[in-house]
Amino acid sequence: MSEYYIGWWNLENLFDANMSPQRALWLQKHLRKELKGWTRQVVAKKIRQLRRIILQMNSGNGPDILGICEIENERVVEKLVESLALSARNYRVAHHDTSDKRGIDVAFIYDSRKFTTNEKEQFHYEVLKRTATRDIFQVNFKLKASGRDLVLVGNHWPSRSGGRYESEPYRIIAAETLSYWMKRILEIKGEDVAVLVMGDFNDQPYDRSMTDYALSTRSAAKVRNARTPMLYNLMWPLTGQGRGTYYFANFPNMLDQFLVSKGMLKRGAHIRVVTDSVSIQAIPEMTKGRYKVPRRFGRPSSKKSYDKDGFSDHFPISVILKET
What we know:
- By secondary structure, the chain is α+β, with helices and mostly antiparallel strands.
- It has one domain: Endonuclease/exonuclease/phosphatase (Deoxyribonuclease I, Chain A, 4-Layer Sandwich).
- The protein contains eight helices and 18 strands.
- The protein has helices at 25-30, 40-54, 57-60, 74-84, 164-189, 208-213, 220-225, 236-240, and strands spanning 2-14, 65-71, 91-95, 105-111, 115-116, 122-128, 132-143, 149-156, 194-200, 216-217, 231-233, 246-248, 251-253, 256-260, 271-280, 287-288, 293-294, 317-323.
- The strands form four sheets. Strands 5, 6, 7, 8, 9, 10, 11 and 14 form an eight-stranded mixed sheet that branches.
- β6 (122-128) and β7 (132-143) form a beta hairpin.
- α2 (40-54) packs across α4 (74-84).
- The longest helix is centred in the middle third of the chain and has 26 residues, at 164-189.
- It is globular and about 55 Å long.
């Protein structure tokens, strides 16, 4: 039996350095104020801070796969991968560049000794407002040990800026898109395929976008028996404990979540999720204050938020998969 440690983390604006040649001119102009003081030295420090946390995951072995969001381009992810330098790992990057107005994308860092993929097995969708925003990014992996399929879908849904309810329709669009994708994945790959959905959904497990449109639920039995492409939301127990991955006004919000398909819940599943393995990686050095909120890195252009010894405004989450 093989085990796989899968993580997800919103890295909070891992931008390339200001005036990077990799950045389009329109984006450089749009981010001009935000990137003030975002030098190569600041980027290097941010990466070192992220590295400190990633290397503590999985008992110091690093994740087998880490889904990430709020990264500007593949170049900064490659820099992060280079910094990890684990002898037992051969990390590679699956990434798609979006047209988001802030240039932030979704990507996966994966151990190529354990998984394979190719660009023909990668799909993306950008939720459209008046401009493209955020991303849904699907990568079909194969486990090298067995050749079995493991489908991962990374999500970064539109934010709540402008108001929770005013912005909700865009997250509902993303949720409907995800649900359609699930239907197509099961039609093409079969109902027993292992699908792990993860992301920063900018909504909580009980919000309408998650329950009514993404068709996620706290009932594993309902998912196993449903004819519709329902998803089992693994974050309900932690939500019930008053835990969160992101804090607003010191209140915990479970914005980062794992959801799984019926193929990972059935008896005899070849790849199954260990439901009680889900964890919020609130490593002590990442927290601050009475409420133990995430210690964010922020950015130099904001004196209020910048903390060179911070990390991110989100906690990472992790889950264990087992292959029989």
